[in-house]
Design goal:
Layout lengths: L2 H5 L5 E2 L2 H10 L4 E3 L1 E2 L14 E3 L17 E3 L17 E3 L17 E6 L14 E6 L14 E6 L14 E3 L1 E2 L18 E2 L18 H9 L7
Parallel strand pairs: 1-3, 2-4, 4-5, 5-6, 6-7, 7-8, 8-9, 9-10, 11-12
Length: 230
């Protein structure tokens, strides 16, 4: 099956692991458009360069798979699992990956754009060069990750577990850290003027030592002590 043939298949067509394996063995990178792969076991397959468009991937198992340079576009992948998978240079765009599991996944140089990642688990993920723009990470598990010198655009970390993460030199543009768990985080030389710091208690403010904040943000933090900025 060629890429052009798969693109013309009817939407929501079912496919199983055996058929996927045949494509892996016989063809180059494939485009699957409108397929239903829910609950499918695709672990440890080499799907590098594949493109998934408008596919249903809920609870699919990609554990240990080679997904280098893969594209997920307008997919619904709630609770899908990517434990230990390689998503180097992958693109996830306009997709729903709520509660997806990326523990120990290589996401280096991957790009997430216009995605829902509520409750996703990125514990121990490798994220060097990860690009994030317009991503919802509310309630996500993201401890001890490095966003050193990253530019974060419209990223919502509200209520996320970011404990021990490194944001040194990061630039926040229209982002939210509201009620995020920030114990052990580092923000030296970070530009937080574009971040919503609502819910941050004064005793947590020391974590922003060395960061740049706005006058309004400083007034909000000092207001917890009954002080006013003139």
């Amino acid at each position: 099956m060629s890429s052009s043939e798969s693109e013309n298949m009817p939407t929501n067509q079912m496919i199983d692991r055996a058929e996927i394996k045949k494509l892996v063995d016989a063809e180059g990178p494939i485009t699957l458009r409108g397929y239903n792969l829910e609950d499918l076991n695709l672990s440890r397959l080499d799907l590098s360069g594949w493109r998934f468009e408008r596919c249903r991937l809920a609870r699919a198992n990609f554990n240990g798979a080679n997904l280098e340079d893969v594209h997920f576009v307008s997919c619904r992948a709630g609770a899908a699992s990517f434990v230990g998978a390689d998503l180097l240079d992958a693109v996830i765009e306009s997709s729903d990956f709520n509660n997806a599991i990326f523990r120990g996944t290589s996401l280096s140089s991957a790009r997430f754009f216009q995605c829902k990642m509520t409750g996703a688990d990125l514990s121990e993920a490798k994220i060097l060069g990860l690009e994030l723009e317009e991503v919802l990470f509310s309630l996500a598990k993201m401890p001890r990750l490095s966003f050193n010198k990253a530019v974060l655009r419209r990223v919502d970390f509200s209520d996320a577990d970011l404990a021990g993460s490194d944001f040194r030199g990061a630039i926040f543009e229209d982002c939210s850290l509201r009620n995020a768990h920030l114990v052990g985080c580092r923000f030296e030389k970070a530009d937080l003027r574009g971040a919503d710091l609502g819910g941050v208690q004064m005793n947590d403010a020391r974590r922003f030592r060395g960061a740049m904040i706005s006058r309004a943000q400083a007034a909000e933090l000092l207001g917890q002590l009954g002080l006013k900025v003139g």
